[in-house]
Amino acid sequence: MIRQDGRRPDQLRTIEITRGFTRYAAGSVLIRCGQTHVVCTASWQTGVPEWKAGKGTGWVTAEYDMLPAATATRRPRNRTKVDGRTQEIQRLVGRSLRAVVDFAALGENSILIDCDVLQADGGTRTASITGAYVALVDAVRYARDQNLLTADPIIGQVAAVSVGRCSGTALLDLDYSEDVAAEVDLNVVMTAAGEFVEVQGTGEKSTFTLAELDRMLKLASSGISELLTAQREALAE
Q1: CATH code of the domain occupying 15-236
Q2: Helices in 113-168 by DSSP H: which ranges?
Q3: Per-domain residue ranges for the chain?
Q4: Does the structure show a pLDDT above 80 at 206?
Q5: What's the predicted TM-score (pTM) here?
């Protein structure tokens, strides 16, 4: 099966990770996954939320949003209230990054992640996680260069990808047209150690079997392996 953009079922969209995309954040990345483009920034902040104060450990949290013209129909800004989808995604991004951070090594400091979607064509949450990890590492490098940290709190590597079943075929890294047509839709977050951080799976238009789930998870794992390599190559530049 050849997809509408010419990809094989097991093929990722073209991925580009540009570091240092903005001037002021401790870490900043523009990640392009096909026609999905997300700016991910990581800001260093001395201190932690009140509920963590005095415990000697740090915190990593995330916010996510889409620019009004990121989609074909203008989307109003979240000015006074964060909608449910946005809240769900930013919590997912935060959980994913916290899975690879040693909070004791971070000390009573916080890293604040912001993911802003410039253009959406499916997979914005998974692109946000993949790009935010690179921004997080750069923020930690900044803190160590400034002697704000004595130890490296990054204890792993994490990336994410979508996978789904369309017309009975398992597809990796769904674009928007595939996402809306998918019978089954999964978002998978994994570490470089091959461990799952989160699996969000839904039978959108039909149920799915254990064998199909296993097939899709293996497809996601293969794609995430490529994304992890892209992260390492970007961080080595």
Answers
A1: 3.30.230.70
A2: 124-145
A3: 15-236
A4: yes
A5: 0.96
